[in-house]
Amino acid sequence: MSFLLGSGAGFSGDRTDAAVAVVAELIKRQQPSALVFETLGERTLAAAHRAMRDDPESGFEPLLDELLAPVLRDCLDHDIKILGNFGAANPRGACQVIADLATQLGRGDVRIAQVHGDDIRQQLHSLDLQRWEAERLDMPGDDALISANVYLGAKALAEALAMQADVVVTGRVADPALFLAPLMHHFDWRWDDWDRLACGMMAGHLAECGAQVSGGYFADPGFKDVPGLATVGYPIIEVEQDGSLIITKPANTGGCVTEQTVKEQLLYEVHDPANYLTPDVTVDLSHAEVRQLSPNRVAVTGIRGKPAPERLKTTVCYEGGWQGEAEISYAGPNALARAQLAAQVLRERLVFRAPAELRTRLDIIGLASVFDSDSGELQRSASASASGDYRLRLAAEHSERRWVARATQELLALYCAGPAGGGGVRRQFQRRVFTASYLVKRSDVNAHASLFESSPLGERRSERYAAS
Amino acid sequence: MLQADHTQTTVRPDTSVALHQLAHARAGDKGERLNVALFAYDPDHYTTLLEQVTEERVLALFAHRGASRVRRYPLPNLAGMNFVIDDVLQGGVNGALNLDGHGKTLSFLLLSMEVDAS
Q1: I need a labelling partner for A398 at 20 to 30 A (CA). Which of A20, A55, A263, A266 fits?
Q2: CATH of residue A403
Q3: A327 and A308 in one domain?
Q4: Do A385 and A361 contact (CB within 8 A), yes or no?
Q5: Residues of B with CB below 8 A from A302's CB?
Q6: What ipTM was predicted for this assembly?
């Protein structure tokens, strides 16, 4: 009998009602299964650490309640394991939220496990690190450091499942490891059975971005049509003991699982297809094949595995100054010339109103923007209608907030002092995060799991519910 | 300096089409590096893609964005290929001033390349 892996979310900010249809299908199938929430992007973790500085009770996925409330009781009642990296910077805080939610749902007996070992801020300066994707090897000072987390593999998560956990809460782990762990636990594969590990890891890779394998991020009307995108079904992967994979989705949902959707996701964020590095296995998908078995069922075969890399990837986030944006619209007759004049006025103003090291970029949305370079090469060569609907956008960065504020304020001032008919100014600025990646020795990482000691509703939390 | 292909106005053969007619693509980012996976709709067009969507042409298409290197990994079983383009994200998701710091829209810049489908 196959093991079923369902996806409940593919990033922090994903649809919070997606898991409902997946869980309904998992219950209907009556097979061993797990539901995975992947909600921790590279920058999401830095944001969580910042949030925790201001409020020690935060630091985990802000929508955790909203994601789990509709499905937690059903999953517990039907022994569907839940795994999620929704612990972010504060897995213990997330465990408490889940324990409280389970108690409210009449299942205070829930077993929750927490994975430890990804956060290496304290040891960072004493570790033997190799540069991976980093401009420099010297670390930011303690003042600038926001977070340092190792991408853990599936072992500590499988350990948590061996403790008979119903819910496994992690911080940073390799996203597909969230899916590999229940397979390792269920099938009892060996940790050096590279081909099966590779299949399990690719099951996770295909499902970790939620709907991206089942019709999301795919539609191109007239070329790639997707039915029911508003109710797109999140993926379910059927995995067999021998590692074979079938991608499908819940009945009565929108979207589609086709050879095309699976191929696009198979290579998503992959570099050398013969050497896709993960903490538990190096995957070779250069010989992979996809085959449509029936509507919304696609088999993936030909995945091979090689020994795991010797070191683990670690991402360090640190303060990167300030970044801001401001925009203003011009529409109707001669709008393009008015937007271009506004851009010219801003360029002239910023020469004497801001320091030379202020980095800026000007786009004219509708003429050229996302494809363009910072210096606006396409903007100068592109042709577009003189009349239309154009939006001038300024982006600026500086280590000091005041200069980013000044630059965006100069765009705001175009209201009264710029060309005719400008409107709809929006302006915002925020702290920026820099990231750098390093490789750390496995022996320096202590990944392990522990069962969360569930306590009755905390006082602060009862107050929060009473107030809401 | 290499000129981006889609801004050229040279006379094209009658059989010239946008790559978008023959193939679909998805982009993903890691740091300053972008990957774009490209797949022929019809496996018969795979050879056309191999012959015409070369590392050199892709580098030229992304030159205005500062691309420094392109590597192409053919995937014959999938009638596709994976392009890895270095230094094209102008700082990446954290550093870029571009609205699209991830470079997610750039799959369609690749699909705007003209190819001869004869």
Answers
A1: A55
A2: 3.30.70.60
A3: no
A4: no
A5: 77
A6: 0.93
Average pLDDT, chain A: 94
Q: Band the pLDDT of B13: cuts 50, 70, 90.
A: low
Does pTM top 0.80 for this prediction?
A: yes
State the greatest distance between any 2 C-alpha atoms of chain A, in Å, as a whole number.
Answer: 71
Exposure string over B8-28, b if 16+ CB within 10 A, otherwise e: eeeeeeeeeeebbebbbbbbb
- Give CA separation, A432 vs A319, A369, A399, A452, B91, in Å: 6, 21, 9, 34, 12
Over range B42-49, report the average pLDDT.
97
Number of domains in chain A: 2
Cβ within 8 Å of A, B 42-61: none
Residue pLDDT, tens place only, B59-96? 999 999 999 999 999 999 999 999 999 999 988 777 89
Q: A387-437: per-residue pLDDT in tens?
A: 999 999 999 999 999 999 999 999 999 999 999 999 999 999 999 988 889
At which residue do the structure tokens 């019709």 appear? Answer: A215
Q: Under DSSP, is residue B43 helix (H, G, I), strand (E, B) or coil?
A: helix
Chain A: give the shortest CA distance to residue B98, in Å. Answer: 6
* A283 and A341 together in one domain: no
Domain co-membership, A424 together with A457: no
CA distance A139 to A307: 30
* Segments forming the whole domain that contains residue A253: 3-315+437-467
CB A8 within 8 A of CB A36: yes
